[in-house]
Structures are given as structure tokens and as C-alpha cells.
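Standup notes, structure subgroup. Blocker cleared on the iron/sulfur cluster input:
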Amino acid sequence: MICRWYPVCPIKKYHEQGEIEPDWVADYCMVSNPNCMRKRLEEQGIYHPDNMMPDGSMRQDPK
Ligand code: SF4
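Run returned:
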């Protein structure tokens, strides 16, 4: 089951723009992974920056 936040999640945008490894979406968003840090924070109403990845690490922009 796809994560309910996917339509509005910046990870979707990064994925569609080919800016991140596809594994992020496959391993987290497409299976609604309960370990997603973004989801946990979202559902607690806690701020998290757009460039925070599902595992809580910060996205490294390509050089
Ligand atoms: S990154 Fe997390 S919150 Fe965003 S769509 Fe994927 S699983 Fe959901």
C-alpha cells in the first residue's frame, strides 16, 4: 500500500525528477514503511525539512 503522504511528499518530487535513488520510494513509500522518519514526524505534527530522507538522513545533492 502506498504511503498516504506520497502525493504531497517532497520525496515523490525528487523521485520523479530522477534526483534520488529509486530504492527510497520502493523501500519506503510504496510499502508505507512504518520506519519512515518523515512519516513519523508528519503524523506528530513535528517540523522536518524537505531534504530529510525517509531514514532521517539529509539528502546529499549531486555535485
Ligand atoms: S518519504 Fe515517508 S512520508 Fe514521504 S511518501 Fe515516502 S513513506 Fe511517506
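Discussed briefly. Residues 27 and 53 are 12 Å apart (CA to CA).
Next: hand off to the docking folks.
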